[in-house]
Amino acid sequence: MSRAGLDRVRPDDGGDFVWCSSRLGKQWRLWNLWSRSRWRPATLAGQFLVLQVSVLLVVVVVASVVSVQQSDADFRATRGAAMRDAAERLANDRFVRSTVRTGTVAENRGALATITQVTRDSYQASGVYIAAPDGTVLVSSDFAGRGERLDLLGGPAQRLRAWTGDVDDFGTSSIAAQVPIINRRLELVGIAMVTEEYATWRERARSVLIDVVPVAGLGLGLGIAGSLLLSRLIRRRTRGLEPAAIAALADQREALLHSLREGVFSVAVDGTVTMLSDSARELVGIEGDVEGRRVDDLDLDPAVRGLLADDAEIRDHVVVVDDRLLVVNRTPVVEGGRRVASVTTLRDRTELLALQSELDARESITNTLRAQTHEFHNQLHTISGLVQLGDYDEVARLVGTIRRRRAEISDAVLAHVEDPAVAALLIAKTSLAAERGVDLRVSDASDLPRLDHESSTDLGTVLGNLVDNAVDASVSVGGTAVEVDLRLDDGAVHLSVSDTGPGVPAEVVGEIFRRGWSSKAPTVGGRGVGLALVQVVCERRGGSVEVRSGADSGAVFDVRLPGAWEDVEVDAL
Hints:
This protein is of the alpha+beta class.
């Protein structure tokens, strides 16, 4: 089948292509283009403008309707009173009463018609009627309705009561006043009614719009101008983003907050929490809805609360919360040259601390073994040379000296330290210090029992880092002694490490425990970790670490490590 003169088009719903005539295809494409442009989502500014204009138009319409109704109410009140006054004058006219009472209406119809016309002209009424007690029109101002019945609406006038209200004046809606005509015996002999028809809706709208249209037009113009300005402001404040893009950003924000492993806090300049990730809730132990609340009102660890409420920038600050080691970073958010908020991130480094502590212990053991290997190599070379010389007595004396020296080091440590891990660490550090020309001693007042495994590990981490720093400090100025004091008091281990180094200047006492601070030359792996690790371990156990100047020279580090080791059974090493 030939497809000449046919076009291939695709429906809006994404269905398969179809073949149709060129003219029909052109119309179809125009329809698709129009429908897409018609149903394309409007911009936020455009939607707001349409809403504002719609509201203003509704207000104008409602105001117009209310004005018309108010005009009707005013007309009913003022003209109703005038119609009642006219009807009462007509009913109380002596000639009218006499003529109606004597039944001589037919003989005096001309005179009565004149009276009704004068009344109509005087009060600008639409119709003036004199009727029989049953409502049959006897005389009217325009000679209309004679012989027909008036709209008496239940007959208030027939019950000898004057009445004012709306009636159907022979097909015309009117305001009317009906007054009974009575004789001297107070009997009803006739009814006087004066009416004025309501203006049409067109006339009422025209009278109202003369006043409403200028004011409404001015208000509508000002409203449209304000809406345009507000739309531009909204576009500027939303960075030109439309509702769909803003919704997508909000969804992405929620997804990021739920997926980040790092805790994220966003705090406004007034201390109000504006954003909080799930990880942050878990790390600091917060439950419930806290966004919109002040940081000071939250149940937070004092250290964390202080970091969140501060204004300064923070980089890799270490804080301990419960059993967690958190690394805190805070960055101020500046807009237009002023700080509007701050974003704080929390990283859990508890496992990293344990690994680093274990690596430090391994490194210490490796260094000790390296030093002992070096020392043993020298001693073996000496023994080998004596054997080759055949001086066996000197070999025996050398071996005895080495054994005694090892025994003296072990005995000096084991006499005051019963925990095997801590004792082994001190023995190894003593050998390592001796290789560098430093005498590492355990004070005579030291007395440390066996500890539980966790406490022994933490104490080893603290002791190893402090001894290494003390030896380095002593060597740097030619010092030759480092002393360690260990004792258990009130359920806590009290540790003091003193050196013969240069000491710690007063101006840097508050900085030495900060991660990254070091008086040594930088290395590839970085420095400033040891003392920061000591502080973290102490804080995690609820203890403390302080530094002071020694009695003669150098520095003294005092550590307090609480623990549950009082019930640990003490055995001989």
